[in-house]
Amino acid sequence: MIRVVLPYHLRTLAKVNSEVQLDVKGPVTQRSVLDALEARYPMLAGTIRDHATRQRRPFLRFFACGEDLSFESPDALLPDKVASGKEPFLVIGAIAGG
Question: Which of 1, 18, 24, 33 is most deeply packed, by most CB within 10 A?
Answer without folding.
Answer: 33
